[in-house]
């Protein structure tokens, strides 16, 4: 898990997220802004309820079951809000916009299988996802073959946009942006002079840790250890015993909140008193259920800022809660903006195709051409790789009950 002065959202449900303003309209390359809507009806995901309209589907790919379903569901619901907010505008153009959510189960094989299914459905014109970089990378190969545009609201792995795929885009910062910021914060603000590095052996986790490793070396921070763990286990004594014995000032973990929660709890139980730090994979209120009091003090660098301090953000959070009876996930706001970007590209392609149903390639090119699009939480301009020129990095620290916004990294 990747903007100046743009508000992104604190990914902890703990803080809530999202706003009452919605739906953007107009061309993708004209500095468009989002507009407000007050109700969020659930968009249709079945056959066309309006036979006179042409169906256009936007799919989501995220884990809707399993250990990471909390954040995966948040991505789906963020996209659902955006689809609902712009549905009426598309009806006026003669199109029925439908959300088409898919459960990738955080599994690369399932992600690829889903991608093949989406490509076979000629009504699907964009994919919002994935949550896991390790699922996004192999799936993106299929999207590229099918000229099906993908916009990730969460993936930070460098490799995702380094392959030159025209179909692949992301709103968030990359690991090679996050890592230097995290390492500098660890040294300057947390006083780390020596560190122990560990990761979950995934494309995201190991990729981030390797980038952080390079950054710490450049800063002159001493490395006491570098180890990988297997995600999904319940006992990490092998790593924890090393932490207790070597006593690093800071442990940096590249991985997800579930494993971090277990490691932190077991390490505290055995007397480790140093600090813990990671990336946006640590963002989830569920870390408190896993780590208990040991969650307090864990620091993470992420790609979304605290939107609660802004009136628009507060309204969006309230609207999300009213619509879905739950707090938004860490990446619900980015999923919302990613979907607005996709819809903006689809609308532009329709206009350029004389008001008719566009081709996937037309939509793919329109989305890649997004320039100075003002979403609700971030501005978006894609470079020639599909990275967002406005992405930022922010720091949070878990308090007793919720994550607290520490500020923009480097400031």
TrEMBL record:
Annotated SUPFAM superfamilies: Periplasmic binding protein-like I
Polar residues compositional bias, start-end: 41-51
Cited InterPro entries: Leu-bd, Leu_Ile_Val-bd, Peripla_BP_I
Keyword Signal in annotation: yes
Keyword Transport: yes
Pfam families cross-referenced by the UniProt entry: Peripla_BP_6 (PF13458)
Position of the signal peptide: 1-27
Name listed for the protein in its UniProt record: Branched-chain amino acid ABC transporter substrate-binding protein
